[in-house]
Amino acid sequence: MAEEKNKCLFCGIVDGSVPSLKVYEGKNVVGVLSIKPATKGHVLIIPKNHQAYLHTLDPESLFEVMSAIRSVTLLLSQTFNPEGFNVINNMGPGAGQKLPHVCFEVIPRYKGDGVKVEIPQGEFKEQELMKVQEQVLTTSKTNTIKTLKAIKEGKVKASPEVKAEAEKALAQLEQAENPVKTAKKQYSTKLENILDKEE
Ligand SMILES: [Zn+2]
Q1: Cβ(132)–Cβ(124) under 8 Å?
Q2: Which strands sit side by side in the sheet containing 104-109, from one edge to the other?
Q3: Which of 29, 38, 54, 153 has the fewest CB atoms below 10 angstroms from its CB?
Q4: How many A from CA of 9 to the centre of ligand 1?
């Protein structure tokens, strides 16, 4: 772990062993100018905690990262008056993440800056989308049941009130026939309305 940390460029920026041009510093986050800026004012927002992913970062740092993005975009707006911003985070090597340390790129956008952020628009397939929703909600349900069971069994410390609440919620969740069904019905009705309006 220590060795990995020594190799991380962002950890070096955080501890000052790698020189950087800081424009923001908070308790858990720094904001530095990109040394290869896509546009004028391109800033990297880096949490001090060495974590590769948003879902492994501690909540306090995560909150501060979002807060830093807000402050930095405001600062850059006031300083350079760009036409907009792209805020980009790559998670995992498959998504283009180069270092296993969370980073948000704040890129101010100007007319004719040549920056391209393109997300392809796939085909609309309702049944497939519903299947995806079901899969995600099933994972969510499984996770929730696991957490509630841990509370019920005393593996997670909780007050008697919380424990009672957890037991109640667990019973409801285990009895619930299919929480996905209701969501699906609501979605279909709403979607019909949207499609009607679009015609
Ligand atoms: Zn690091």
Answers
A1: no
A2: 22-25, 29-33, 43-47, 104-109, 84-88
A3: 153
A4: 6
Task: Give the tokens for residue 112.
Answer: 């004719």
Question: What H or E segment, with its residue span, contains residue 79?
Answer: helix 59-80
Ligand 1 centre distance from Cα of residue 42 (Å): 20
By the 8 A CB rule, do 72 and 62 touch?
no
Distance, CA 133 to ligand 1 centroid (Å)? 34
- Residue with the bigger pLDDT between 23 and 189: it is 23
Confidence class for position 56, pLDDT limits 50, 70, 90: very high
Q: Is the pLDDT confidence value at 10 over 60?
A: yes
pLDDT digits (tens, 9 = 90+) for 89-140: 999 999 999 999 999 999 999 999 999 999 999 999 999 999 999 999 999 9
Q: Two tokens at 86?
A: 């792209």
* pLDDT for the residue numbered 188: 67
| Separation of first and last alpha carbons in the chain | 57
| pLDDT tens digits, one per residue of 161-178 | 988 888 888 888 887 756
**Cα angle 55-39-79, degrees, rounded to a multiple of 5:** 95
- How many whole angstroms from 159 Cα to the centroid of ligand 1? 37
Phi and psi torsions of 125, nearest 5°: -130, 100
Q: b/e map of 1-37 (b: 16 or more CB within 10 Å)?
A: eeeeeeebebbebbeeeeebeebbebebbbbbebeee
